[in-house]
Structure prediction request, 86 residues.
Amino acid sequence: NMMHCVRLLWSGAAILEEGAPRVRFEGAQRERLLAIRKGQHTYADIMEWVEAETLRLKSLEASSKLPEQADLAAIDRLYFELLERI
Prediction:
């Protein structure tokens, strides 16, 4: 579960930085996720990373160009358009 926690934090950061979530990770991030999954890091170490990433997310949120709220009308239109395709 901790691997997914870290992965979701990194994906959230990508949303704030790039406007889209990151689903696949490569390089050092991928290796860190795999090491967490294999149990190669202590819970305390992982929680340190999580706390640091949480602070980073708060900083990114303050400077993000994303709108404060979602466009609910656009979401409804997309939802009904997708329903029609089923």
Remarks:
- Helices lie at 2-18, 27-37, 43-63, 72-85.
